[in-house]
Amino acid sequence: MAESPCLDGTFNCTYQNGPTLVPHVVPVFAVAVLAVALRMYSRSLIRQNRNASDVTVVIGLLFSAALTGMILYSPRIGVGRHVNDVPIPSIERLLISLFVGCILYAFAISIIKISILLLYRSLFPTPGINLATNIIGGLSIAWGIETALVGTFSCSPVRAFWDLSINKEDKKCIDTTTFFIANSAFHVVLDIAILAIPIRKVWPLKMTVQKKIVVSFMFLLGGFICIIGIIRLFFLATLKMDDVTWSLIDTYVWSSVETSVGVICACLPTLRPVFTKLFPKGGLETRIGTVLNTQRSHRAQERNSFVRLREESKGITVTREIELESGISDGKGKLSEEEVRDDMWRYKG
Question: Which of 11, 164, 300, 303 lies 20 to 30 Å from 146 when distance is taken between CA atoms?
Fold first, then answer.
């Protein structure tokens, strides 16, 4: 291990940022728990039985809870402190938690992906959607298994991952940083593919424009997972192994946030019955519909006024239209369409 920045005086070794985990991680996880609870309540409102998508999102939430709990405990074993401030036994416990956290993260993310794909299959039961979800689902499962296996067997013997008493000559470890960067990049690509599946199916549906906007918006919120995955990838790529206890905290935060947001996004498309019950007359669909209807009304009113004006002031309108086309207007030059319209409004008054 290279010399720690803590040793050469670059950092203040007494400072710790572990307490910043709570305000960043806990609120997002609490919203994830609320989203799952509302999803189950939504099912009861429409008297629909729980399906495979509901079961998998609950399992994903449990893995997210385990990961979040482990991350919240990590400051007690050195995360958020510079490595020179952390005793060797604590570093070993930290490496054990990192070992377990890698497996929890892999299963949480892959199960949440499967839950979203199962939801798509139930909402859009078409051969094309079934084929797309089968392919992406298979890749998601393979990604989760691969991530868990590499995290587990990255060192030989396995305990060499955390046991610092084993000599370098007696152990062999792969470059996990490079692997997990490439692995996370592929994970983001899968998220983008999952995000693209439902959008092309929403707009051809026979529903009002405002409903299409609301449904598309709910699905597009899944884009937050892609953004968070990219942020996590950045911190993973910039992880400083010579002061890993300090720099690991950002990766931990975004790992927990990503799993929680994944659960939230998996639940959002199912919450419409709850929103309808809470906002029966003032929901988002109604507001969007009001805006669209107002715009249509204004366009229709303007068109009707223009027609009536042509009928009431036909001579003037015809003269102006001829002048507009020929560019002759009593020596004043070619009139614009706006000037013609302004004159017509004046004659109407």
Answer: 164
Spans of the chain, pLDDT less than 50: 1-15, 283-349
Determine the Cα–Cα distance for residues 262 and 112; give it in Å rounded to an integer: 6
pLDDT at 310: 44
The residues that bridge with 155 in the sheet, in sequence order, are 173
Give the dihedral sign, CA 121/124/127/133: negative
Burial 308-323 (b: 16+ CB within 10 A, else e): ebeeebeebbeebeeb
Beta carbons within 8 Å of 277's beta carbon, 6+ residues apart: 45
What's the token pair of residue 145? 């298994």
Residues 193 and 179: their CA atoms lie apart, in Å, by: 21
Structural tokens at position 330: 């009593």
Answer yes or no: is 143 within a domain.
yes
- Number of independent structural domains in the chain: 2
Q: pLDDT value at position 177?
A: 76
Q: Could you give the count of Cα atoms lying within 13 Å of 229 in the half-sphere of its Cβ? A: 23
Main-chain dihedrals φ then ψ at residue 155, nearest 5 degrees: -125, 150
Report which residue type is found at 175. Answer: D
Q: Is residue 6 part of a domain?
A: no
Cis peptide before 157 (omega within 30 of 0): yes
Tens digits of residue pLDDT in 315-329: 444 433 333 333 334
Rg from Cα positions in the chain: 30
Full domain range(s) for residue 61 = 18-278
Taking alpha carbons only, the member of 21, 26, 59 closest to residue 266 is 59
Q: What is the pLDDT of residue 303?
A: 46
Q: What confidence score (pLDDT) does residue 210 get?
A: 64
